[in-house]
Design a protein that fits this description.
Largest interface: A-C, 59 and 57 residues
Number of strands of chain C: 5
Oligomer: heterotrimer
Shape of chain C: elongated
Strand content of chain B: under 5%
Structural class of chain C: alpha/beta
Number of strands of chain B: 2
Order of helices and strands of chain C: EEHHEHEHEHHH
Largest sheet of chain B: 2 strands, antiparallel
Distance between the termini of chain B: 51 Å
Strand content of chain C: 5-15%
Radius of gyration of chain C: 23 Å
Order of helices and strands of chain B: HHHHEEHHHHHHHHH
Distance between the termini of chain C: 55 Å
Number of helices of chain B: 13
Helix content of chain B: 55-70%
Strand order of the largest sheet of chain B: 1-2
Number of helices of chain C: 7
Chains: A alpha+beta, B mainly alpha, C alpha/beta
Number of domains of chain B: 1
Largest sheet of chain C: 3 strands, parallel
Strand order of the largest sheet of chain C: 3-4-5
Structural class of chain B: mainly alpha
Chain lengths: 171, 360, 206
């Protein structure tokens, strides 16, 4: 009996048809493709995108981000001492996105939360000098701001209920 | 209507005076249709492979991606044409042509429907040349395609294309024999080499030949997939891992190989219905009885039925490509020589027995 | 649609349009960009992901990965180019048939990335002419798709593609700007420039 079933299996190739059934199943299933430019992915919370800097918040004398950056792609130029007593904002601030690994060390180390990740990820340029952001070209956009786990005391659970929008409303 | 008929009769008299014109017109129509089908079967394959892999294929170039094959072809024709220094320039340039023409030449002997009858009683056949050794011609011409591949590999002046072409040579040799033997079983059933006679025999017997020759049909399918160099057996190309015979070809000449491969798909999937699935016979209908009453309707429906059958066959080939991984080389030759050849021979005896004893 | 086309004194009906042959050729070229199958490092995984079901590069007609450089149109340098690999990459580029394009994907391919050492080539642009740079470590698959679209735009019209894809803060949204407050700061910059503390922008990272 076993020999007969083995013979039948040998001449009818059930394994091949099983494989074809699997592909046929996927043929009729719903497709998982996200058609990128038209329908964009909902990015995960804590996406590490392009770095955004709030120059007004930066105290610049600590230069933690510059020291902690494994790539050395952040350069902060604090103001001279007499000016720093009243205004601690940096004179110049450069982030080089060519080298940036989006590791988030600068975000973790920043004591005032001036530097943070955004959800911008399409960092595509024709001329790579555009990737060097200085104080004027570095964007700061609260809507694109994303929190990280140890960022500040207020860690929102969902993006929808985040305190960001309240902050904007108050402004 | 009368003026149209008069116009047609004058054209017809001209064509009868120069019979070459009829053939040229037929060849033109046939080549046009085949080129269009070949262009769009590439798109169909890319989209269907996408569906099988749970994604959408090319859909951004034109509506539903319908301009994609045009863009691909035009791009290939506009690309730089590189002839390597080590190559044999003449053979290197000739090889794509050798690979290109056999499938297109093979279409000449097909008959696509029962003849069209004009109001004045003259009949027009849906075939360029319905020769009485049609199947033999097809077998001969389809094994010519290997010359293109061998020339391409050898004349490239590089060792990997040469290996690819040697692989393809032994593969073609291994699978040509079972393919021919499985076709011979059909020829035995029909008693003729002419393709229209084979279809007529299926209409006369009132069953299709895949019923007595079911083993032959399976053997035909497997070895024709191998003949087409398609995925379970695509060792001659082996695009992703083992480098194939057209490695050194760029631009237009590469497009020739590409078109030849898909023309082979169309060719094999149009040959299979004629041999095994009744060709232009409309299923579940007595064609010959209807043909006496409404000849033109039956011939049009016959073309549609032929097209539907070969489309289903081609879709099945694409489905197979989407499913199976590639065979190892020794497995491939083992399947060809040790499995398919004995089965095809046994099938020959089975069919001979059926023909002798069951069908008187 | 009522406007009539007039070419060299001949009027054409409204349904006649004129297209340059170059435009048709560029349409064909940019819609069938076959990439070359090779990956140098970890960015290649992200490139594979862009080819797979979820992001599906085949929608742009460029899923036909060509193993032979002769048949490929676009070279996606995905990963670190070591000094040993650099001649090979250059050779592959030389073997490709014109017209050909290069996408440098990831920090390593742009400027060596984290590997500022003896073994790694500092940027793909030192050996091949790069058309589009994708920043990230690694970039998301969407970023590669965006790069492909940018390359298509570059083939269509090189000038319009050169506009930066991200342009600082969005003016329509509520943002804070340091410029609004401090007017004295430019003077400070001048002062620091005199002291030599602030150098020219492009010199800083060289």
């Amino acid at each position: 009996m076993e020999a007969i079933s083995k013979f039948i299996r040998m001449i009818t190739f059930p394994e091949l048809f099983k494989g074809m059934a699997v592909t046929a199943k996927y043929f009729f299933q719903r497709k998982v493709t996200e058609q990128y430019p038209d329908q964009k992915t909902i990015l995960p919370y804590r996406t590490k995108g392009k770095l955004h800097v709030d120059i007004d918040k930066c105290i610049s004398l600590c230069r933690f981000c510059e020291k902690v950056c494994p790539e050395g792609c952040i350069k902060v130029f604090p103001p001279p001492k007499e000016l720093a007593k009243t205004d601690k904002r940096p004179v110049e601030f450069y982030i080089n996105q060519e080298h940036c690994l989006h590791c988030g060390m600068c975000v973790d180390s920043c004591s005032t939360g001036a530097i943070h990740h955004s959800d911008e990820y399409e960092l595509v340029v024709i001329d790579f000098k555009e990737l060097l952001g200085d104080k004027e070209t570095l964007p700061y956009d609260m809507i694109k701001k994303h929190y990280r786990w140890n960022y500040l005391e207020n860690v929102p659970v969902k993006i929808k209920d985040s305190p960001l929008k309240e902050e904007e409303k108050s402004q | 209507m009368d003026t149209l008929l008069n116009l047609w009769s004058t054209i017809e008299s001209w064509m009868l005076a120069f019979p070459v014109v009829i053939y040229l017109v037929k060849i033109g129509i046939l080549l046009g249709c085949v080129f269009a089908v070949v262009a769009y079967i590439t798109l169909a394959e890319r989209r269907l492979l996408g569906f099988y892999q749970s994604r959408l294929g090319p859909n951004r170039v034109g509506p539903l991606g319908l301009i994609q094959p045009v863009a691909d072809g035009l791009k290939c024709f506009l690309k730089e044409d590189i002839v390597p220094l080590n190559s044999n320039p003449l053979l290197f340039r000739l090889a794509p042509v050798f690979a290109f023409f056999p499938p297109f030449a093979g279409f000449a002997v097909f008959t696509f429907a029962l003849p069209w009858v004009m109001p004045n009683g003259r009949t027009y056949h849906y075939s360029v040349a319905d020769v009485d050794l049609g199947v033999l011609f097809i077998m001969a011409i389809s094994s010519l395609g290997i010359f293109g591949l061998i020339l391409a590999g050898w004349s490239s002046g590089s060792k990997y294309p040469l290996f690819g072409s040697l692989r393809s040579a032994s593969q073609m040799l291994a699978y040509e024999v079972p393919l021919t033997l499985s076709v011979i079983s059909v020829v035995m059933m029909a008693g003729s080499f002419r393709l229209s006679d084979i279809v007529a025999a299926q209409q006369a017997y009132k069953f299709y030949f895949f019923i007595p020759c079911i083993i032959g049909f399976v053997v035909y399918f497997i070895s024709s997939v191998a003949e087409m160099n398609r995925t379970p057996f695509d060792l001659p190309e082996g695009e992703s891992e083992i480098i194939g015979f057209h490695t050194e070809y760029s631009g237009m000449r590469f497009a020739f190989f590409f078109v030849a491969e898909y023309a082979n798909v169309v060719f094999i999937s149009m040959l299979a219905p004629a041999l095994f699935l009744g060709g232009y016979d409309i299923p579940f209908v007595n064609d010959l009885a209807l043909y006496g009453a409404h000849p033109n309707i039956v011939s049009i429906l016959g073309v549609c039925s032929y097209a539907a059958k070969s489309t289903i066959f081609a879709l099945f080939v694409i489905w197979v490509r989407a499913t199976f991984p590639r065979y190892r080389y020794d497995q491939l030759l083992k399947i060809g020589w040790l499995v398919l050849l004995p089965i095809a021979l046994a099938n020959l005896f089975v069919v001979a027995g059926i023909k002798l004893f069951l069908l008187k | 649609m009522t406007k009539k086309l007039t070419v060299q004194g001949t009027e054409y009906p409204s349904w006649v349009g004129l297209v340059k042959a170059d435009e048709i050729f560029d349409y064909a070229r940019r819609n069938s960009l076959y990439p070359l199958t090779f990956g140098l490092a970890c960015c290649a995984i992200e490139m594979i992901c862009a080819m797979c079901s979820r992001y599906d590069m085949s929608r742009f007609g460029s899923e036909v990965m060509r193993p032979s450089p002769r048949q490929a149109d676009v070279m996606i340098i995905a990963g670190t180019i070591t000094n040993k690999m650099a001649p090979v990459v250059r050779k592959l580029y030389d073997q490709m048939a014109y017209p050909k394009w290069v996408i440098a994907m990831g920090s390593c391919a742009i400027k060596g990335g984290p590997w500022d050492d003896y073994a790694v080539l500092q940027g793909a642009s030192k050996i091949v002419p790069v058309d589009v740079y994708v920043s990230g470590c690694p970039p998301r698959p969407e970023a590669l798709l965006y790069a492909l679209m940018k390359l298509q735009e570059k083939i269509r019209n090189p000038k319009s593609a050169e506009e930066p894809s991200f342009k600082g803060p969005d003016k329509s949204r509520p943002t804070k700007s340091w410029m609004a407050k401090g007017e004295e700061i430019p003077e400070v910059v001048d002062e620091m420039l005199k002291q030599g503390r602030v150098v020219n922008t492009t010199q800083i990272f060289e």
